[in-house]
Amino acid sequence: MHYKWKTGMWAFVMHRVTGLALTVYLIMHINVVSSLHDPGSFNKTMAFLGQPLFRVLELGLLAAVIYHGLNGVRVFLIDFCNRTKNHAAIFWILAATGSVIFIVGAYPLLHHAGIF
Amino acid sequence: MNTVFKIYRFDPESGRNPRYQYFEIDVTKGQTVLDALIEIKAHKDGSLVFRRSCRSGICGSCAMQINGLNKLACETQVEDLKSKTVTIDPLPGFKPIKDLAVDMEPFYDKLRAVLPYLINPDSPPTDKERIQSPEEFKMIELATSCILCGGCTSSCPSFWADKAYLGPAALVKAYRYVFDTRDRGYSDRSGVVNNKHGLWRCHTIMNCNDACPKHIFPTEGISLLKRKVVEEKY
Ligand code: FES
């Protein structure tokens, strides 16, 4: 089975992937937070999570949240506001919006890490 | 312009695996993919199997995958594809019978399932038609133009993953009757469309909207049906 991938297909697959990734993240997040019972373990975990690898993952988390949220708006517009015919245009408008939000959000993250 | 046609060949009786066969023909201006297939069958290989009837976008027999997208062969001019090699496959998601012909029976079963005819227990006014205003007809006009080519349902990833899914064509047909002001069959159809192999399998992937040769936009009809089902319930 092969079929040319168009905007709608990319939007759908990315929605699924980010949705799964966010679910996994949320489980890990709750798990880690619930294990922090005293200042000692808190500081240790925070130091561990301060490594560059987690900074990069944080950017990925930001991107996933923005994508999943904005594409949710797109699906809402399609299903509730009859915007089927404009689905591709909406995708690109939201992609531009999402990129701006990403830059605005990534700056303090990187600044805090001392990169900017 | 010389164009190579890369065509899916499959003959279950030969016992061989499906393969691609290449044919080169000189395409003239305005020649459609269907014209090219007819030329290949007439002059190069008479064993090539494909369906066609009206050769003018009415009967819906010639839907196939052309360069990775579902299209009607008779409405697609080779020139417009702007490619030196044109790849032709049978409609995906259906069982190939031979070469480009696929088994459409499951497709028709889905269509029958949504009761594709007027349901109205009240008899029509004597000597008159059931009246519908132009505005009321506008609501379903596009949906009535479906030629049942199967291009939309065959392009739908939800259908590939769930062969029990009604698919865009059958849902558009359901929409066409549910939103017909003369019809009273909503309660008969709602159970068929409102289940996990019905409306809710549509994940707005949008392939069907591009595939439809009549520009019906099945997703829009499906969305309106989704809302109707929710509104009726609450
Ligand atoms: S041959 Fe009838 S639609 Fe193409």
From TrEMBL, chain A:
The record ties this protein, via Pfam families, to: Sdh_cyt
Under the cellular component aspect of Gene Ontology, which terms does the record hold?
membrane
The keyword Heme belongs to this UniProt entry's keyword annotation: yes
Gene3D superfamilies per UniProt: Fumarate reductase/succinate dehydrogenase, transmembrane subunit
SUPFAM superfamilies according to UniProt: Fumarate reductase respiratory complex transmembrane subunits (SSF81343)
Subcellular location(s) of the protein? Membrane
Enumerate the GO terms in the molecular function aspect. electron transfer activity; metal ion binding
Query: Main subcellular localization, coarse class?
Result: membrane
Which biological processes are named by the entry's GO terms?
Answer: tricarboxylic acid cycle
Q: Where are the transmembrane segments?
A: 59-77, 89-110
Which controlled-vocabulary keywords does the entry list? Heme, Iron, Membrane, Metal-binding, Transmembrane, Transmembrane helix
Entry cofactors: heme
Q: How does it assemble?
A: Part of an enzyme complex containing four subunits: a flavoprotein, an iron-sulfur protein, plus two membrane-anchoring proteins, SdhC and SdhD. The complex can form homotrimers.
Q: Which PANTHER family match?
A: SUCCINATE DEHYDROGENASE 2 MEMBRANE SUBUNIT SDHC, SUCCINATE DEHYDROGENASE HYDROPHOBIC MEMBRANE ANCHOR SUBUNIT
The family annotation for this protein states:
Belongs to the cytochrome b560 family.
Q: Which protein is depicted?
A: Succinate dehydrogenase cytochrome b556 subunit
Q: Which gene encodes it?
A: sdhC
From TrEMBL, chain B:
Question: Molecular function terms in GO for this entry?
Answer: 2 iron, 2 sulfur cluster binding; 3 iron, 4 sulfur cluster binding; 4 iron, 4 sulfur cluster binding; electron transfer activity; metal ion binding; succinate dehydrogenase (quinone) activity
Protein keywords = 2Fe-2S, 3Fe-4S, 4Fe-4S, Iron, Iron-sulfur, Metal-binding, Oxidoreductase, Tricarboxylic acid cycle
Q: Name one Pfam family in it.
A: Fer4_8
Check the record and name the PROSITE patterns matching this protein.
2FE2S_FER_1, 2FE2S_FER_2, 4FE4S_FER_1, 4FE4S_FER_2
2Fe-2S ferredoxin-type domain residues? 6-92
The pathway this protein participates in, as annotated, is:
Carbohydrate metabolism; tricarboxylic acid cycle; fumarate from succinate (bacterial route): step 1/1
Query: Cell wall biogenesis/degradation as a keyword?
Result: no
Reported cofactor(s): [3Fe-4S] cluster; [4Fe-4S] cluster; [2Fe-2S] cluster
Q: How is the cofactor bound?
A: Binds 1 [3Fe-4S] cluster.
**GO terms classed as biological process:** respiratory electron transport chain; tricarboxylic acid cycle
Q: What is its EC number?
A: 1.3.5.1
> What reaction gets catalysed by this protein?
a menaquinone + succinate = a menaquinol + fumarate
Per the database record, which ranges form the 4Fe-4S ferredoxin-type domain?
137-158
Q: How does it assemble?
A: Part of an enzyme complex containing three subunits: a flavoprotein (frdA), an iron-sulfur protein (frdB), and diheme cytochrome b (frdC).
The family annotation for this protein states: Belongs to the succinate dehydrogenase/fumarate reductase iron-sulfur protein family.
Could you identify this protein by its name? Fumarate reductase iron-sulfur subunit
Source organism per entry reads candidate division LCP-89 bacterium B3_LCP
